[in-house]
Design goal:
Blueprint (H helix, E strand, L loop, with lengths): L2 E6 L3 H12 L4 E7 L2 H11 L3 E4 L8 H7 L5 E6 L5 H6 L4 E4 L5 H15 L1
Parallel strand pairs: 1-2, 1-3, 3-4, 4-5
């Protein structure tokens, strides 16, 4: 089974790295990548991905507002260096909080597998 993914992070370089990692994980498929969270929210409600990789600290709207704005609720994996928000993000619907960086496609696969195992 393949899981469709959307990435939302204002750091374009991180998005590009994550895109490349997703392409190298056989059970993931990239549906879209957005550096503007407002565009990302609109895309998620249209694309209805299985998984959302989300940053917390973004200039337009933050991760909390992004989660709250979603009509479609994918599995949300927060990837951020702002660890101080972990408990709050898990409380509002994130399935997992991962400290940046994700270092390899294998690391990404391990993260997603752990989340999927918890969701079942």
């Amino acid at each position: 089974m393949k899981y469709s993914c959307v990435c939302i992070d204002d750091d374009k370089m991180f998005n590009e790295i994550l895109e490349q990692y997703i392409k190298r994980v056989d059970f993931l498929e990239l549906a879209g990548s957005y550096s503007n969270p407002i565009e990302g929210v609109m895309a998620i409600d249209k694309l209805k991905p299985d998984i959302l990789f989300l940053d917390v600290d973004m200039p337009e709207i933050n991760g909390f507002t992004t989660i709250d704005a979603l009509d479609h609720k994918p599995i949300i994996i927060v990837v951020s260096s702002h660890w101080e928000h972990e408990r709050e993000l898990l409380a509002v619907g994130a399935a997992k909080f991962v400290i940046k960086p994700i270092v390899s496609p294998e690391h990404l696969a391990q993260i997603v597998k752990s989340v999927i195992a918890e969701e079942v």
